[in-house]
Design goal:
Layout (H helix, E strand, L loop, with lengths): L7 H23 L8 H9 L2 H7 L2 H14 L1 H20 L2 H13 L4 E4 L15 E5 L2 E12 L6 E7 L9 E7 L5 E5 L8 E11 L4 E2 L5 H37 L1 E2 L2 E2 L4 H30 L4 H27 L9 H8 L10 H16 L7 H5 L7
Parallel strand pairs: 1-4
Antiparallel strand pairs: 2-3, 3-7, 4-5, 5-8, 6-7, 9-10
Helix pairs in contact: 1-4, 3-5, 4-5, 4-7, 4-8, 5-6, 5-7, 7-8, 7-9, 8-9, 9-10, 9-11
Length: 390
């Protein structure tokens, strides 16, 4: 069963993807400007059919895709995932005209999509959004801010979540498709620990009309959560890909690095650390695959399993990368080293698309619910996302 072992064909396909990422996509990523959208890389993802696969695959196949790309080129993995986050609400909630206008270009890598949910004061509690959609004739005007939005301010369009006020909390949020260049929409890039294209957006009375709606008024929060639930299992796969890359680097280094009359791997302390890193990585990978299979099967406990998978995988990746750096010593801290790169990359997944603390809240809430007893109230935070939700 896929929860316990992948089929040979799946493993072979993942191996080909790892090689493709390292040989074809990594050079394109290296030529990009840090902190800017890499359009040639996106175009390559489109030409190779990987963006198409992201939209058309089930959760397990998406996990294998993201894990394999992350192993060979984290920039390619991130570019692919961001297209999915920005484009999936259009696929799920867009009108026929919106889908026809934008999705073919997103799948080709010719149009850059962005998912604009997080705000300066609304991250983990995503239902606390303050961006206002004020009625203006037959449409609305958007006023407020978004922050930590990946691909901003360079995206070609944004899926924007704003408060229209049909009800309190999550039930008063509406989703809009806002093309770049609308009057009143401005943005700036933010410098982050890992130099991805991430920015802030300001909405100064940006006009939107009925043709810009994604789904129905007041139903935007559900669309946001549907999108995040679709991609949350594969965030764990992204983390597993980084952990596997760090583990392989540590294995290679400790097998040949001479010290104390032998190689590092001869030292029991080192060998035991490698064993622990490998065991945690394998456990995380299996849990991610099981959660993805549960999602594909429509299992009733999918919320808990997905939360467990993201929590374990992202925390494990942090552990494995950190210990791989320790085993390498100072060389791993030098700019340009694989582990220096992974050390910066691995931190964010514990925050975005549901921080580790949010995942623990979801897990506990679901466990109590399954047991049929009162437990901790999930609240908006339990269903929401973390600051920096991409």
């Amino acid at each position: 069963m896929p929860e316990f072992a992948l089929e040979k064909e799946q493993e072979e396909r993942a191996g080909r993807l790892r090689a493709l990422a390292a040989e074809q996509l990594h050079p394109l990523a290296a030529r990009g400007e840090p902190g800017r959208v890499n359009r040639p890389l996106l175009a390559a993802l489109g030409e190779l059919g990987l963006l198409e696969r992201m939209f058309d695959s089930g959760a397990l196949e998406l996990c294998l895709l993201r894990e394999s790309l992350a192993y060979g080129c984290t920039e390619a993995e991130t570019a692919l995932a961001l297209q999915g986050l920005g484009g999936y609400p259009v696929l799920r909630g867009g009108s026929a005209a919106q889908r026809e206008r934008w999705l073919p270009a997103v799948r080709r890598g010719a149009a850059v999509a962005a998912f604009a949910l997080s705000e300066p004061g609304a991250g983990s509690d995503a239902a606390a959004l303050e961006l206002r959609a004020e009625p203006d004739g037959e449409g609305w005007r958007l006023t407020g801010e978004k922050r930590w939005i990946s691909n901003a301010p360079e995206a070609d369009f944004y899926t924007v979540f704003a408060r229209t006020g049909e009800a309190a909390g999550a039930r008063g949020v509406t989703a809009f498709l806002v093309p770049a260049g609308r009057p009143g929409l401005t943005g700036e890039a933010l410098e982050m620990l890992s130099p991805h294209p991430i920015g802030a957006l300001a909405f100064d009375g940006v006009p939107v009309g009925p043709g810009d709606l994604l789904g129905e008024p007041g139903r935007g929060f559900r669309l946001a959560m549907d999108t995040l639930n679709r991609f949350r299992p594969s965030v764990g796969a992204f983390a597993v890909g980084m952990a596997r890359a760090a583990l392989d680097a540590a294995l290679a280094h400790t097998a040949r690095r001479e010290a104390f009359g032998g190689v590092l791997g001869d030292l029991q302390a080192v060998a035991h650390r490698i064993a622990e890193m490998a065991t945690r990585t394998e456990a995380a990978r299996l849990l991610v695959h099981a959660a993805a299979a549960a999602y594909d099967a429509g299992a009733p406990d999918v919320a808990r399993r997905v939360a467990m998978a993201k929590l374990l995988a992202t925390e494990t990746a942090q552990y494995v990368v950190d210990h791989a750096v320790q085993l390498h010593g100072a060389r791993a801290l030098q700019r340009g080293h694989l582990l220096e790169h992974l050390y910066r990359e691995v931190r964010a997944p514990r925050i975005y698309e549901g921080a580790s603390e949010v995942q623990r809240t979801i897990i506990a809430r679901e466990l109590y619910r399954e047991a049929g007893v009162a437990g901790p109230a999930g609240g908006a935070g339990g269903a929401g996302v973390a600051e920096g939700a991409r």
